[in-house]
């Protein structure tokens, strides 16, 4: 079973961005990439507490503007290194963070990161994970720029007690128990053998080299990745802004879809009314066409009747004119030449016509009179002795009147 362990260390303000990059794996030095297994990086968990490095630096600048200078040796950013077991989740670690902040209000958490992608394979090929979490926090007091002091022996022991209690892990040994150094709080009989002078120096030298290596790696990561971290922060802000715009657009789209649905319903209603109107219009047109056909049939029937009446009238008029003409036709066989001329003059005066027409009429009448005369003479030759025809003053042969048969 893994023993509970919490270790605190300061973070230089200049490399705070690299620390955040190390937590989310956006910034890694060559040495870190050597022991990070990227196929397990997706198992890492991160929780942000809404307090960024820029916000803390802005608080410090605001406090200094009010005359509260930050001590030149103060380090407002710190990191907890916490061990945990495989079954623990980010919520379990977050509960521990809540207990720590309740007991130490001067600690303000910024980011909690659980790393499951660090470790190694043993000689048998088994994966040996190095399960640990980083809690980046600030000890700066807003407005005063005073730093909350944490890291003494009692605080370290208390933090390990809280870790063992709330993570359900075995309580590890303290520095004095593990290193054998003198602890005045314990009886002399319980003291562990002290390290020799050279052993102690070698241990401290190894720790110092480890710290220097870590600082070198962190500085290298800062040089290469701080700009990337700031860019990622900027992109995160832009992404948040774009997300807000997307939410607004989503609301507008939902409203447009609703309006479109209402318009579709109105359009269906209009189409229904239009279809009804067209049906009524067609029925009305059919009625109008039937009425027009009826009127046309009546008109044709009336026209037929009128045509027949006109034909009858024309026939009657022709008959009347024929009867009138027959009644007024002179008897050419018994009419005298003078009387014939008088009739012609009378008709000419009654109906003014052209001279040529009058001449033609006279010629026709004369021809008719001559024919009658020839007929009369032929008949007289057979019955009586020939007589010398008499000519009138106008040169027309006159015959004696004969009886009408």
List the helices and strands and how they pair.
Layout: E1 3-4, E2 6-11, H1 16-24, H2 30-35, E3 45-48, H3 53-65, E4 77-83, H4 90-103, E5 108-115, E6 119-121, E7 127-129, E8 132-138, H5 153-167, E9 170-171, H6 175-179, H7 197-328, H8 337-350, H9 355-383, E10 390-391, E11 397-398
Parallel strand pairs: 1-9
Antiparallel strand pairs: 2-4, 3-5, 4-8, 5-8, 6-7, 10-11
Describe this structure in words.
- The protein is of the alpha+beta class and 405 residues long.
- Among the domains are: 3-194, BirA Bifunctional Protein, domain 2; 337-398, no CATH class.
- The protein has nine helices and eleven strands.
- The strands form four sheets. The protein has a five-stranded antiparallel β-sheet with strand order 2-4-8-5-3, with helices on both faces.
- The model has no long low-confidence stretch (mean pLDDT 78).
């Amino acid at each position: 079973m893994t023993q509970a362990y919490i270790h605190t260390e300061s973070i230089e303000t200049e490399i705070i961005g690299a620390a955040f990059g190390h937590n989310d794996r956006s910034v890694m030095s060559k040495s870190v990439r050597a022991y990070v297994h990227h196929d397990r990086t997706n198992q890492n968990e991160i929780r942000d507490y809404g307090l960024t490095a820029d916000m803390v630096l802005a608080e410090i600048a605001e406090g200094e503007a009010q005359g509260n200078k930050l001590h030149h040796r103060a380090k407002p950013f710190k990191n907890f290194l916490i061990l945990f077991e495989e079954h623990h989740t980010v919520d379990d670690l977050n509960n521990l963070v809540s207990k720590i902040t309740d007991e130490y209000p001067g600690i303000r958490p910024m980011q909690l990161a659980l790393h499951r992608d660090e470790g190694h394979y043993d000689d048998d090929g088994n994966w040996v994970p190095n399960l640990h979490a980083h809690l980046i926090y600030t000890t700066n007091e807003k407005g005063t720029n005073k730093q909350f002091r944490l890291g003494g022996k009692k605080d370290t022991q208390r933090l390990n007690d809280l870790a063992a209690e709330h993570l359900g892990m075995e309580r590890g040994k303290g520095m004095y128990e593990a290193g054998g150094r003198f602890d005045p709080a314990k009886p002399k009989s319980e003291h562990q053998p002290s390290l020799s002078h050279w052993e102690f120096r070698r241990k401290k030298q190894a720790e110092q080299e480890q710290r220097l290596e870590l600082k070198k790696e962190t500085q290298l990561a800062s040089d290469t990745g701080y700009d990337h971290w700031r860019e990622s922060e900027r992109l995160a802000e832009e992404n948040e802004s774009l997300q807000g715009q997307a939410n607004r657009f989503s609301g507008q789209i939902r409203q447009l879809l609703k309006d479109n649905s209402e318009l579709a319903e109105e359009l269906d209603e209009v189409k229904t009314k239009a279809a009804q109107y067209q049906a009524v219009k067609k029925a009305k047109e059919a009625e109008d066409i039937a009425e027009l056909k009826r009127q046309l049939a009546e008109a044709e029937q009336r026209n037929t009747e009128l045509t027949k009446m006109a034909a009858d009238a024309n026939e009657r008029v022709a008959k009347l004119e024929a009867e009138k003409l027959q009644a007024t036709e002179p008897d050419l066989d018994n009419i005298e030449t003078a009387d014939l001329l008088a009739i012609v003059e009378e008709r000419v005066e009654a109906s003014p016509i052209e001279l040529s027409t009058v001449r033609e009429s006279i010629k026709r009448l004369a021809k008719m009179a001559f024919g009658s005369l020839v007929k009369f003479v032929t008949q007289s030759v057979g019955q009586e002795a020939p007589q010398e025809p008499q000519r009138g003053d106008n040169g027309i042969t006159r015959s004696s009147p004969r009886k009408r048969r």
